[in-house]
Design brief:
This protein has 457 residues and is of the alpha/beta class. It folds into three domains: 93 residues, Rossmann fold (3-Layer(aba) Sandwich); 201 residues, Mur-like, catalytic domain (UDP-N-acetylmuramoyl-L-alanine:D-glutamate ligase), CATH 3.40.1190; 136 residues, Mur ligase, C-terminal domain (Protein-Tyrosine Phosphatase, Chain A, Alpha-Beta Complex), CATH 3.90.190.20. It has 15 helices and 21 strands. The model has no long low-confidence stretch (mean pLDDT 92).
């Protein structure tokens, strides 16, 4: 018998891994919708105390007794079947539900569901839309895969029928959603550990587009050839956005050395409003145009959207300023794919006075082999690339690839690069070489952000 969250209203839902970025948001949504919620995690996180403040009981340490008395157990993909709480749930015949299924079922509660998809930029676009919608008093519920300061986390609990959520393609998790408006910004060769081929990635996005109802709306990235083709073949009502073309476009883009990017938004060739973003990079202009299109379609005025975007700050781990070293500014960015790295470093270069040093921590051996041992021209804006040991992520080192291989690929692309095994080594090297006016950008989806904070102490 299929399990559905609506059958457990008022009952106890236990979330394993509740301190995670997505799971904490789901816990808050469940609590807001009238469910009894408990949870557990291996340690404290940014999100655990806000959950307790809502009256949610959290156990630190995952033990069999934590699930006893629960009516339903939800878990993230990182929680394996041998987890003691899942083992106990199975022994007690407590129904279980994976995170993406829970998110999809919760989305059924809302009349308008905006699912923000694409291999790059999801968190930024989702948070931009969330801010615009909140400022316009649309009272949305928001599920964000990151930490936005204006939300105090990754969640907003609204009372309207509007739900804004990231729609993540990894392991096809977005196929559980019930979107009425979709953004598909780009399709790239990411998550090849799961998809294996670019063709499989494309087919996955086709399935996602097919989820739209007959009266739904697809907001498609014009600058991405694959997305243009998908939109044309989908049969869905479509509007497009882009820099090179589209229904909503950015004109007269000017990157200021003050870090502010200014441009004019036009619709069908007619100027609507001028926008000033307090962040560098054309990729962020694209994110803003997509968000503009979505909110304009919801009825928000161009001026109101521009005012919100002018006040918008990137979510944490997106070109986030961490501190200074020897008078050089140190930033961290979540960029972990060549396309993201190129965009991040292009933005950094536009505001860097001196030398630009890029620290790239590759997350997973599969990613190293498939993305970082060929053409590495994505690093071309850096004066020097620094590569530490590969962060294993979910994988085990089989000895077939090493960080030195990444360094050789960067060097073969005509860019200075060095291998420094640990972040302590990197700290010593930077202390010896950085000068005032230089910039360091550390990049990756592993523990590089934590390591960056440590080496700045």
């Amino acid at each position: 018998m299929a399990v559905h969250i609506s059958d457990y209203k008022g009952k106890r839902i236990h979330l394993i891994g509740i301190g995670g970025t997505s799971m904490n948001a789901l816990a808050m949504m469940l609590k807001n919708l009238g469910y009894e919620v408990t949870g557990s995690d291996r340690g404290e996180s940014l999100f655990t105390q806000p959950l307790r403040d809502m009256g949610i009981e959290i156990s630190i340490g995952q033990k069999a007794e934590n699930v006893r008395g629960a009516d339903l157990v939800a878990y993230s993909a990182a929680i394996k079947p041998e987890n003691p709480e899942r083992v106990e749930a199975k022994r007690l015949n407590i129904p279980e539900m994976e995170r993406s299924v829970l998110l999809g079922q919760l989305s059924e509660h809302y009349e308008t569901v905006i699912g923000v998809a694409g291999c790059h930029g999801k968190t930024t676009m989702t948070s931009m839309i969330a801010k615009i919608a909140i400022d316009a008093n649309l009272d949305p519920t928001v599920h964000l895969g990151g930490f936005a300061d204006f939300l105090g986390g990754g969640t907003a609990l609204g009372k309207s029928g509007l739900f804004v959520t990231e729609a993540c393609e990894y392991v096809d998790s977005y196929l559980t959603l019930h979107p009425t408006i979709e953004i598909i910004s780009n399709i790239d060769n990411d998550h090849l550990d799961y998809f294996k081929t670019e063709e499989n990635i494309y087919r996955s996005f086709e399935k996602y587009a097919a989820l739209l109802p007959d009266d739904g709306l697809l907001i498609a990235g014009y600058d991405d050839e694959k997305v243009r083709k998908l939109a044309a073949d989908s049969g869905k009502r479509t509007i497009t956005f882009g820099i090179t073309g589209g229904d909503y476009t950015a004109r007269d883009i000017a990157a200021g050395h003050d870090g502010i990017t200014r441009f004019t938004v036009a619709k069908n060739g007619e100027p609507l409003v001028k926008v000033a973003l307090s962040m560098p990079g054309e990729h962020n202009v694209l994110n803003a145009i997509a968000s503009f299109a979505a909110c304009h379609q919801l009825g928000v005025s161009p001026k109101a959207i521009a005012d919100s975007l002018a006040d918008y700050k990137l979510t944490r781990r997106r070109f986030e300023y961490y501190g200074d070293m020897n008078g050089a500014k140190v930033y961290h960015d979540f960029a972990h794919h060549p396309s993201e790295i190129a965009a991040c470093l292009q933005g950094a270069r536009s505001v860097c006075d001196g030398k630009l040093y890029a620290v790239l921590q590759c997350n997973s051996y599969t990613r190293a082999k498939t993305l970082f041992t060929g053409d590495m021209s994505c690093m071309k804006q850096a004066d020097c690339a620094i590569v530490p040991n590969i962060y294993p992520g979910r994988e085990t080192d089989d000895g077939t690839v090493h960080a030195r291989d990444i360094v050789r690929s960067i060097q073969a692309s005509g860019i200075e690069a060095i291998y420094l095994p640990t972040f302590e080594d990197i700290k010593v090297w930077l202390k010896r070489n950085l000068k005032a006016g230089d910039m360091v950008v550390t990049m990756g989806s592993g523990d590089v952000y934590q390591q960056t904070k440590i080496f700045l102490r």
